[in-house]
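hey can u check if this looks right to u? its 202 residues, i copy pasted from the old doc so theres a chance i mangled smth
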Amino acid sequence: MPAKTPADAPADLLTDVPQQWPVHDVERIWNGAAPFSVRRDMVSVPGRPEDTFGRLVLEHPGAVVILAVDDDERVLVLRQYRHPVSARLVELPAGLLDVEGEDPLAAAQRELREEALLLADRWEHLLTTYSSPGLSSERISYYLAQGLSPAPDRGDFVPEHEEADMTTSWVPFGDLLEAVLSGRVSDGTTAQALLAYRHLHG
């Protein structure tokens, strides 16, 4: 027997619906030099202002991830130390939308040049997702970059700290996808980009 649908359910059950529950108080917990901040909202269920509860929110400017695929179906990957998880991860080029008003595609083009020293003739938007909507407002746009060529330089980007230790490699798409599915590569954005590409380009 099919599951019952609530009477007030939207016509399209597979579409996110914008909604804002009442916020009664906001506590600013942290602001720093980085383009992030943390706040604590006191929220209530609509129509029940007495039923309040706290929710932490990491305010995030958003980010882009670039899947660079060459004519031989190889993917450009980075290896970078990530302190919160105490691991050197296999990842794709990526970066923050930390330039005021910057278009995500322009940010993706900038990050590919800065991190991978590559330019691309063809760009395709793959998908856009929230990374962890229970905690963060981070929204990530994923792009496919093809028609690749070497960039003359990194622009005004100077790698520091973990990025100065970052390395790049070319790996076959199939090998990288198998490494993700087997758990040897665990970066979530890499997995999403690969699966979207496989779905769209077979």
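The longest strand covers residues 118-130.
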